Amino acid sequence: MHTSILELFKIGIGPSSSHTVGPMRAARAFALELTRHPELERVARLQVEIYSSLAATGIGHGTDWAIKLGLAGHDPRSVDPAQVPQLLQDIRDRQSLSLLGEHAVPFFDEQNLIWRPAETLPRHPNGLRFTAFDASGEPLLAQVYYSIGGGFIQRDDEDGATTSGSPAPYPYADAAQLLERADGAGLSLWQLVEHNESALHGREELDRRLAEVWAAMSSCIDRGLQAEGTLPGGLGVKRRAGRLHARLSAQVGFDPMSSMDWLNAYAMAVNEENASGGRVVTAPTNGASGVLPAVLRYYERFMPGATPENIRRFLLVAGAIGVLYLENASISGAEVGCQGEVGVACSMAAAGLAAALGASNEEIEHAAEIGMEHHLGMTCDPVRGLVQIPCIERNAIGAVKAVNACRMAMQERGSHRVSLDEVMRTMLETGRDMQSRYKETSQAGLAVHALKRWD
């Protein structure tokens, strides 16, 4: 594996990792690239071309404003979600943006943002082409970026994500090798991942960052459980997590199914925050950001003997499973549909919960496999390009399925027929066979039929 789990778990801003976080990072990277040439002060005009899925659902996903904030130098990890409306209003009022806060350039959405939903760049549906021109209209710098899912970006001349640091003591390329390395060394999967990540970052930094990730997830749940009102975007979707939380908190008597209701509340709380442009953690994406936090809070609240150390083990294993999908298949809804988002999140959460509960390495792998097997073929068809319908409920269902996948795997206590590697390959092939209109374009499925009610 070339990608660290700390790259996978990005603390960022909603509503979309591929359509908001990735474009913001790409725009900022382009602006920074201008500073490495004697060009920044010569820029008189900017042009940003937005392709395929990014263009088809970009407005609903905030791609337009993410690009502007990125060009202005803002980063999704550090920008204050509460300040975003004012930052954008300032750009509109001035009719210009300040590249990296240093050099003002005229900027009008209608002129500087060019939407090309019918065109696809060669490497990925989520393509962006940035061009900077001087006062005479001559190009100073042009660069293509791809937003490949989970907030990861690749420049057109790059092969993929790499992590600097010491070589991993236990390298592996797929789930079979991961199991083989762990069993050969007499390690639990979480221990193997811990050794590899500590070699990259140091144990103290690893622990600090994992604690930061869980704190951000937990805070997001808490904010979502207290919030009220209607989500932005024009669909009139009302927040439900707070109301469900209030009913569950007032519940009297024993309900054996209440833990499922709490899982639903936790997941919806996170995804309602995401839909509102709040602070979330990509796990592995923003559209699927509610599954892991919900299962973790479920573990923390309902599992006897839950400890912070086991939450850490959950994140180590879940992160490793997510990286397997990133590097061997896809976590991009625009590339493989929602099976690559909520499906991967379910697989990660099932494996993480199994690790937290002390499952064997084989049971952890089995839990991950079950989690994905029953999301195969899931389309990405957001209504009006908003990460609301069906995304919010879909995260809640994914969280419930993750707990069930973990329980099934730990009850089996034997070999299983389908391996995690096989189900990952199946997911990738299924995604490639899926018609593009079912892959985050809002041109089919619920995005078409449910929209009739609002038109």
Helix/strand layout:
Blueprint: H1 5-8, E1 11-13, H2 17-35, E2 45-51, H3 52-61, H4 63-71, H5 84-94, E3 96-99, E4 103-106, H6 109-112, E5 113-116, E6 127-133, E7 139-149, E8 152-155, H7 175-185, H8 189-201, H9 203-226, H10 241-249, H11 258-275, E9 279-281, H12 291-302, H13 308-328, H14 333-336, H15 342-356, H16 361-373, H17 391-412, H18 420-433, H19 446-449
Parallel strand pairs: 2-5
Antiparallel strand pairs: 1-9, 2-6, 3-4, 6-7, 7-8
Helix pairs in contact: 2-4, 8-9, 8-13, 9-11, 9-13, 10-11, 11-12, 11-17, 12-13, 12-15, 12-17, 13-15, 15-16, 15-17, 16-17, 16-18
Description of the molecule:
Helices cover 52% and strands 10% of the residues. It contains 19 helices and nine strands. The protein has helices at 5-8, 17-35, 52-61, 63-71, 84-94, 109-112, 175-185, 189-201, 203-226, 241-249, 258-275, 291-302, 308-328, 333-336, 342-356, 361-373, 391-412, 420-433, 446-449, and strands at residues 11-13, 45-51, 96-99, 103-106, 113-116, 127-133, 139-149, 152-155, 279-281. The termini are far apart.
Shape: globular
Q: How much helical structure, as a percent, in the residues?
A: 40-55%
Beta-strand content: 5-15%
Rounded to the nearest angstrom, the distance between the terminal CA atoms is: 47 Å
Order of helices and strands: HEHEHHHEEHEEEEHHHHHEHHHHHHHH
> Can you tell me the residue ranges where pLDDT is under 50 for at least 5 consecutive residues?
none
The main sheet orders its strands as: 5-2-6-7-8
